Amino acid sequence: MPLAQKYAIIDTRYILDKMPEYGQAQKQLDAIAADWQRDIDAKQLALDKMYKDFDAEQVMLSDDLKKKRQDQLFLKEKELRGPPASTVWF
User: What contacts 17, CB < 8 A, 6 or more positions away?
Assistant: First the structure.
């Protein structure tokens, strides 16, 4: 006794493209993502500069100042790797 299976293929892209709200929401999400990327890029540049400055100056720094700078670098890196400060979670 053969068993038949029924299935359907739904083109969700077609459906979503017909909804103006989807297009508006996608534009808003793209703008937010672009802002976040600019923020991340700026923080990465600042962190790279901090590392470069630390490498250049570390031979002249006392152990306490080295530790302080390393802690600052660690906190900046942690901030960079975490979610954006403006993140709203629902």
Answer: 23
